[in-house]
Each structure stands twice: as C-alpha cells, then as structure tokens.
From TrEMBL:
The organism's place on the tree of life at top rank: Eukaryota
A single GO cellular-component term on record: plasma membrane
Boundaries of every Anoctamin transmembrane domain copy: 147-717
Molecular function as annotated in GO: chloride channel activity; protein dimerization activity
Designated name of the protein: Anoctamin
Segments forming domain Anoctamin dimerisation: 74-144
Principal subcellular localisation of the protein: membrane
Record's bilayer topology term: Multi-pass membrane protein
Transmembrane segments: 155-184, 234-253, 299-325, 345-362, 392-414, 521-543, 573-596, 685-706
Protein encoded by which gene: Ano9
Localisation: Cell membrane; Membrane
Length: 738
C-alpha cells in the first residue's frame, strides 16, 4: 500500500483560470523539491504528497537522530510517522510560489480547500480506537506512549497532564464532599439558623420601593439554613487545603513531566534549534529572523488589551443592572411564587444570562486576541501561540469571573441603607444581601455556571462534530458512476477511498488542542479561586474530566482529521498560567472568607460581644444573640419621600410598626457606623493579611520541599552524559592509536 505524508484538496477549477494557475505553480514548486505527487479526481481534486527521503536524512544529520526511540528499527533511515508529518507540514506551509504566495495564502483565496495528514490503518491507531477512544474504557489507564507515537508529544503531554490533574482532583473532591457533609450536619443545628427561624417578631425593612411589604425574618428560615450549611468553620479549613492542593498539584506535575520527557529523550530538547533546522532543510539560503521588540507596538497592544478588559467589565455591570431590574419586575409579578422568590430568581436567571455571555464572548475574545497577535508580529509560531494564550486567558478570565467578583465582594456592600439607597439611573435600588449573608448567592451563581458549562458545553462538544461528520459523509460521498450507468465496475484506486474518508472527517487547525487546554484551565480556575463558596466544585470537575478525557480521545481518533504532530517537552506557557491561578486562588479564597462569609463577624461577636465574654458559661452557645446584634434599626419616618409607603404585615397594624431592621452595623439615631463595624473591619483586614501570608508561605515551602525533577531523572541524565563522554573519549583514543 502506498504511503502518503499529506493530502491537498482543491475544487475543480476551469483550465487556464487564475486559481488553476496558482495551484499548478505551487505543485510545481513541490516537484522541484523532489516531492512525489499523485492526483485523484472525484467531486474534488485530491493531491497526495510524499517527501523525498533525503529531506529526512538531512533532518537526522542536523539534529543527531532525535527520534531514535520511536524508530522502527528495520532501517536506519526510517523515522517516525509523526516526525515525517511535522516536517512535511512545515515545508508545505513555507514553500513560496513565484507570486510570493504560501499555502496559507492559497487556502484563503480558495485555491486549495484543505490540507491534512492521513489517519492510516496502522496498529497504533487500531489499538487507540479499541482500548482508548471508547466510552467503555472510561476507567482504563491512558496509553500515553501510543498516543505519542500516533499524535506526537504535544497531544500526549496534554493527556498526561489531564490524567494527572484528574487523578489529584479526586483528593480535592473527597475533601470538598467532606466539607459539604460537615455543613449538612449544621443544617438544623446551627444556633444562627435557629435564631432566624424563631425570629417571628423581627420586622425587616422592605426589599424594594413599591410593592414590597415589610417582612418577618423567620420567613427566610430555609435560606438561612442553606447559607450556614455552606458558611461554617470547615469552609475555612477547606480553603486552606485547596491553596496547598494547587501548589502540590503543580509541583508533582513538574516531577511527572520530567519523568515522561526523560523517557522520551526530550529533556534538553531545543525548539528553536529544530525550527532552524527545518527552515534550512526547506531553503538552504534561509536567513534567521532576528529578535526584535517595538515599544510603540507593545504600548498599542497594551492599550487595546486594557480597552477590551474595560468592555468585559462593562458587560459584568450590565449583568448587575439586569439583576436589579429583573428583581424589581419579579417583585411586581402577579405570580405569588415568583414574587416571593424574587431574589433567588434574579440570581438564577442572572447566572444563566452570564453563561450565555460566556459562550458569545468566547468567540469574540478569540478574534480580538488573534488580531492583537497579528499586530505584535511574533517571530515564531511558538511565540505567537504564547502571546495568544496570555491574551485569550486574560479575556476569558474577566468574561467568566467579573460577575462572580461582583457577587462575592460588592453585592450588598455598595447599596446604601434605608432612607439613603444607591440607585441605578435614580430609580432602581441595588440588591441587598440576605441577613444570613451573601455567600449563598455566590454558591448559586457558581453551581449554575459550572453545571451548564459541564453539561451543555460537553454535549455540544460531542454532538456537533458527530452530526457534522455524518452530514459530510452523507453529502460528500457520491454514488459510484458504474452503478448509475449500469457499467461493469472498474477497480478503484485504493488511495481514493482512504482519502475520501479522511476528507469527510471534521477539520482541525493549529488551535484545536489549544481549545481543549483553555477549557481545562478555566475549569481549574473555577475549581480553585472561589472554592470556599462552592466546596462541590472539585467533585463536579472530577466527574466532568472522567468523561472529558475519552470525549477528546473519541473526537481526535474517530471524528476529526489527524492533527499535525507537534514536538514539545512541556505544556508551555500554560504552566505559568496555572501558577498565576494558584496565587489568585489564595487571594480569592482569602477575600471570600474575610468579606463574603460571615465567619469573621461571627468570631468577633463570640469573643467580644457574646454572652460568653467575661463568664465561663457552658450552658449557652456563644453565638446566641448574633442575629439581633448584626441587624441595625431604622425609623420608618426617615424613608425617602419618593418611596411609597410599604404594605403592612397581615397581623400588624400600621400604627404598631415604627421601625424595621436591616443588615448593617449602624447607630439607631444618626445611622453612622457603630464601633462593632470597625472591630469587624479590622478583624477582616487582619484575617486577610494573615491568611494570605500563611497560605503563600505554605505554597513556597511546598514548592521548595518538592523538587521539580525526581532523583531517578537526575541520575538517568547524569549516567547518559557520562556514557556519551566515555564513548567520545574511547573513539578519540581508538582513532589516535590507528
């Protein structure tokens, strides 16, 4: 069977047309380089391309047979298929026609429709199809070495990293479940929840201006129980654990990566050297493109990045405005359930809208990031990929987390007070936190976004390529001419069926693997940054990844064209992104506990204001009286003149209600902050400083304690250097004797 490195696909153009001329010029340039070209005509024109053997001899001579572990061993000239494809791909995309056009330019002008390497019926692919790219292999160990042999090192390292991440997520998921179970035990036993449930005489100020009545605190009994199920002492320990887990995960991954690439003989591999070698193989007269930096260009890019970030923050503000207006409309609804649960419904619909903005802005962010990369004019593809990665991650971070940051740190803290509310356009009041805290709003927001991302997104990620493949297979495979005309069937070229079946698969591009990495990095951000508010995030991520590994495998092996293998010895700039997320996780969780959670106010109350202070009492819970102490009093005569008189409670006369309660620490006479407010403020600040310094110190100690390279890797490299030097010296002595 003939082996072909690449297949080019083109429409059938008219003889003498511009496109046909450009196509011929490009193929002539390949022929001059010694390429063998085979043409097959169907509804499209297919050109099989095979590089001459001397191209690969040059590669081995320049780089000293870098793939000796992957060679078949039958012939010293044999090199791995992955390396052949990579070299041919580089030459194809860097061959210049007399019109100074490359393959990329010709594809933009529709001269060629597609260019791809072939999935071949080799033993490695059949093994991957049967043992790896199947749902029934969900819990099987990944065949990383065979993935490398078929898809190259970059894809193999992605799956090695994803498998390692998923394995360690199991421990984080277990800790999160234990934290959640510990919270469930407090569902009914919490003293604070009990006080809210029994506060049937505590009259609260209205939650909106017009149709909102006064309400009794005990009406929110269930909400309070849920809040204190999430917000408790176990959450603080879990946040510290996750900060340590993120560091240990990265340090252990560095060791795992060092072990893997050492086995592949790629520990000291130089990407720049390989790229220069392929440039010279393609064109001996090639001159290297020098490093250069333009401060003017960098300033323009920086300003555009900041402008895009401002747009993304503006979208987060729009979501806030939606929640405020939606809540006002839900309160005025004729549906009793919608009116009673206006706050929760505004949060839930806002979360769904946030998910939709994430889906839409992801596509826009990609285009903007590519445009900015083109402005920078990076020197190499790797530099372009790194620049693109940093920009798209920055944009995606603000897209995903701007709304969550508002809910976590601003909701209920910038809304003013009764009689002096902060309003949007002078009309709609900003939202308030529930008397039991804001952390449940953050919990709901994160739960909805993660569940939607991991259900709808994954279903679409599988269904769209599957349906697309079936449709392409149905429409693009024509009925045989002999069957139509009743002629005697002629022998079909064996290459034709293979090339057609590969053409019918879904297209891949240089960012196909990048998309998978980005999806996992965003998930890692959700799993670590606000995990104190959502302890089940690691569990959801763990379950998702069990399916994600095999979903990606099925797409790559069965539904997509073969990726161009890329050689690498690490996961690139993604490691720096993960380290940055680890630091953000410490800051984020520290802020959630210090600001969003009621942990600090409750501790201040217990040790300064509670009944236990000054007395050694064991018969009373030290948090007794906390709710009453955390609510301020407002005189209803001080309401703004523009605010309509709220409706009365059914069991109360209008004359009986002279004041209402609201969540804050203010004096009853002039509404200034009380001394307790400043005590809590100082305690929050002190906790934040201590938590972040301790967590960062623990991260640094863990990073120092766990070496990046295992001892066996260092010893293996040492022995290899020693052996190579000994051989070199022996050769020199032998040649001297002769």
């Amino acid at each position: 069977e003939e082996k072909w490195d690449f297949v080019l696909v083109s429409d059938i153009h008219e003889m003498g047309s511009e496109k046909e001329t450009k196509r011929k010029k490009f193929l002539d340039e390949l022929s001059k380089k010694g390429f063998t070209i085979k043409k097959i005509e169907d509804t499209k024109l297919f050109y099989g391309v095979r590089a001459p053997q001397q191209v690969f001899w040059k590669y081995q001579s320049l780089l000293g047979k870098p793939d000796k572990k992957l060679q078949n061993g039958n012939s010293p000239q044999d090199i791995p298929v992955t390396t052949r494809i990579r070299i041919v791909h580089f030459i194809l995309h860097n061959t210049v026609t007399p019109d100074l056009e490359k393959l990329g330019d010709l594809m933009k002008k529709k001269v060629f429709e597609a260019a791809f390497p072939l999935h071949e019926k080799e033993a490695v692919r059949e093994f991957l199809k049967e043992k790896w790219a199947r749902w029934r292999g969900l819990f099987n160990k990944q065949p990383i070495e065979k993935i490398r042999c078929y898809f190259g090192e970059k894809v193999a390292l992605y799956f090695a990293w994803l498998g390692w991440y998923t394995y360690l997520l199991g421990f984080a998921a277990l800790a999160g479940v234990l934290t959640f179970v510990a919270g469930i035990t407090l569902f009914s036993s919490s003293q604070v929840s009990r006080e809210i449930c029994e506060a049937n005489t505590t009259i609260m100020c209205p939650l909106c201006d017009e149709k909102c009545p006064y309400w009794v605190l005990s009406d929110t009994c269930t909400y309070a129980k849920v809040t204190h199920m999430i917000d408790n002492e176990a959450t603080v320990l879990f946040a510290i654990f996750m900060a340590l887990w993120a560091t240990v995960f990265l340090e252990l991954w560095k060791r795992e990566r060092a072990t893997v690439v050492t086995d592949w003989d790629l520990y000291g591999w130089d990407e720049e050297e390989e790229e220069l070698a392929m440039e010279l193989i393609n064109n001996l007269q090639h001159e290297p493109r020098k490093y250069q930096h333009s401060y003017f260009r960098s300033t323009i890019v920086l300003l555009l990045v900041l402008l895009m970030i401002m747009v993304l923050i503006g979208i987060a503000h729009a979501l806030v405005i939606y929640r405020v207006i939606a809540r006002a409309l839900f309160v005025q609804s004729s549906l009793g359930l919608l009116r009673e649960q206006a706050d929760t419904m505004a949060v839930m619909t806002g979360a769904v809208l946030h998910y939709i903005t994430i889906v839409v802005m992801t596509k826009i962010n990609r285009r903007v990031a590519l445009f900015l990369c083109n402005l920078e004019k990076p020197r190499t593809f790797s530099q372009r990929e790194n620049n693109f990665t940093m920009k798209i991650f920055t944009f995606q971070f603000f897209t995903n987390f701007s709304s969550l940051i508002y809910v976590a740190f601003f909701l209920g803290r910038i809304n003013g007070r009764p009689g002096h509310y902060v309003r949007i356009a002078g009309r709609w009041r900003l939202e308030e936190c529930h008397p039991s805290g804001c952390i449940t709003d953050l919990f709901i927001q994160m739960a909805i976004i993660m569940l939607l991302k991991q259900t709808i997104s994954n279903v679409m990620e599988y269904l769209i390529p599957w349906i697309s493949h079936k449709l392409r297979k149905k429409h693009k495979r024509p009925q045989k001419r002999s069957i139509i005309l009743g002629e005697e069937e002629e022998a079909e070229d064996p290459c034709k069926r293979q090339w057609l079946s590969n053409y019918e698969l879904n297209e891949v591009n240089v960012f196909s693997l990048f998309n998978e990495f980005l999806e996992m990095i965003i998930q890692y951000s959700f799993t670590t940054i606000f995990v104190a508010a959502f302890p089940l995030a690691p569990l959801l991520a763990f379950l998702n990844n069990l399916f994600e590994i095999h979903l990606d495998a099925i797409k790559m092996v069965r539904l997509h064209r073969r990726m161009v293998p890329r050689k690498t010895n690490d996961i690139g700039i993604w490691l720096q992104v993960l380290e940055a997320i680890g630091i953000l996780a410490v800051i984020g969780n520290g802020l959630v506990i210090a600001i969003t959670s009621d942990f600090i106010p409750m501790q201040v109350y217990k040790y300064i204001y509670s009944p236990c202070v000054g007395e050694n009492r064991t018969d009373v819970d030290c948090s007794t009286g906390y709710i009453n102490h955390s609510l301020s009093t407002f005189r209803i005569r001080d309401f703004e003149p523009t605010m309509g008189m709220p409706a009365m409670l059914p069991n109360f006369d209008r004359d009986e209600i002279n004041e209402c309660r609201y969540r804050d620490y203010r004096n009853a006479d002039d509404y200034t902050y009380t001394m307790q407010f400043w005590h809590i403020f100082a305690a929050r600040l002190a906790f934040l400083i201590i938590f972040e310094h301790v967590a960062l110190c623990v991260k640094l100690i863990a990073a120092w304690y766990i070496p990046d390279d295992p001892q066996k890797v260092k010893n293996k490299l040492l022995c290899r250097k020693h052996t190579d030097l000994r051989k070199e010296l022996s050769t020199m002595e032998y040649s001297t004797e002769v």
